[in-house]
Amino acid sequence: MNPHFRILIIGAGSAGISVASRLLRQSSAFRHDIALIDPAEHHFYQPLWTLVGGGAAKKEFSKRDMEAVIPFGTHHIQDAVSSFDPEQNQVHTAQGQTISYDYLVVAPGIDIDWQGIKGLQETLGKNGVCSNYSYETVDYTWQTIRNFSGGKAVFTHPNSPVKCGGAPQKIMYLADEAFSHRGVRGQTEITFNSANPGIFDVEEYKQALEKVIDRKQIQANFRTNLIEVRGEEKEAVFENLDTGETFTTSFDMLHVTPPMRAPAFLAESPLAGEGGWVDVHKHTLQHTKYENVFGLGDASNLPTSKTGAAIRKQAPVVAENILALLKNGPMDAFYDGYSSCPIVTGYRSLILAEFDYFKEPKESMPFNQAVERRSMYHMKKDFLPIIYWNGMLKGVI
User: Fold this and answer.
1) Is residue 161 within 8 Å of 260, Cβ to Cβ?
2) Beta bridge partners of 105
3) pLDDT at 175
4) pLDDT digits over 205-218, tens only?
5) For 38-53, what is the mean pLDDT?
6) Could you give the percent of the chain with pLDDT greater than 90?
7) Rounded to whole angstroms, what are the CA distances from 284 to 92, 293, 325, 374?
8) Taking Cα atoms as reference points, which of 210, 239, 208, 242 lies closest to residue 226?
């Protein structure tokens, strides 16, 4: 007999676990009637990887066994989804299971497309080519920075959505400061090649970050996308997204933010909208076609930055609106597009960007958050991990 659950959640990342925890906290009736499908054995607090790459944290602190973070009363099905059948309220898995549900929450996260840049996989982790975007490769970023003796340091931002849109520049600011501490900054040329049209989308923070770039003497080239890495030759090939022309630059260090995409099993499903992301209403997070399906997190088509802070605001909306439907009531929970990006600008400084769908600041602190502050750096480094493990994943905040 095929298993059936009242609530089936795809993805045991921060989004899926947060929703499960909130539902269990709000009603004991869900105990043992919620299932999380995810093939992973470990859960990662990925925002820490910027600091790991900058030598300011240990990557081991970002990793926990999946069973340690799955909320009590939730089934963990360690399998991968292969397809969705929303007409029949079923999902099919790689191991041949068919699992049915009353309500489906889709939160599988975002896939990193390492193969999307020619030559990257072959040279990643050597030849000065590094990336903070995996647990396996993040150590080499710090190894490259601390052994850097001068030359060209190039940092990239791809022509795709990415998790935490500020992360590609954060590691650059840490590298700049590390080079200064080691006395090699004067012999170093730092370049930021970004596919975006500017350093940040929200005007207030954009102006502040432009001052950071000017102060640090970083050359920023926008509408510029990495398409090939030649590791042995230490060359990177970029395309100009406005003209279509390509150019090649040499490097001594290359930090790559790889392109990212919706998971294939989602992109090819009836739940997907444009770009392959789960198609949901931007305020209720309910699917635009299937009333018993909700989506949130990096895999959703919500027009805001893909960050953990956004998920922290989305999870309560999903949980409350599912509860409302179960009671045949109106869905009153409302998501306004809130997202946040703590932009590390040095080892003791940070700009806390918070904003909504309208790209207007939506700040939570009683001061100007477009100013670099040491207190905000320590909030990210020392307090946010605690809040994540002990608050967000447990459905408390």
Assistant:
1) yes
2) 9, 294
3) 98
4) 999 999 999 999 99
5) 98
6) 98
7) 26, 11, 12, 36
8) 239
The residues carrying an active-site annotation are 164, 341
Closest alpha carbon to 354 in 315, 304, 394: 304
Contacts of 53 (CB under 8 A, 6+ apart): 130, 132, 138, 141, 142, 145, 171, 174, 255
How do residues 251-297 score in pLDDT, each as one tens digit?
999 999 999 999 999 999 999 999 999 999 999 999 999 999 999 99
Do domains 4-110+262-337 and 114-259 share one topology? The answer is yes
Phi/psi of residue 120, nearest 5 degrees: -65, -50
Torsion of CA 200, 137, 217, 159, to 10 degrees: -40
Give the type of residue at 375. Answer: S
CATH of domain 4-110+262-337: 3.50.50.60
CATH 3.50.50.60 fits 114-259, yes or no: yes
**Exposed/middle/buried for 385, CB within 10 Å: 0-12, 13-18, 19+?**
middle
Are 376 and 352 in contact, with CB atoms under 8 Å apart? yes
Structure token digits, residue 206? 């954009």
Q: What are the extents of the domains in the chain? A: 4-110+262-337, 114-259
What is the spatial distance between Cα 167 and Cα 257, in angstroms, rounded to a whole number? 9
Give the integer Cα–Cα distance in Å for 273 and 291: 15
Task: Give the integer Cα–Cα distance in Å for 229 and 251.
Answer: 10
Q: What is the pLDDT of residue 2?
A: 83
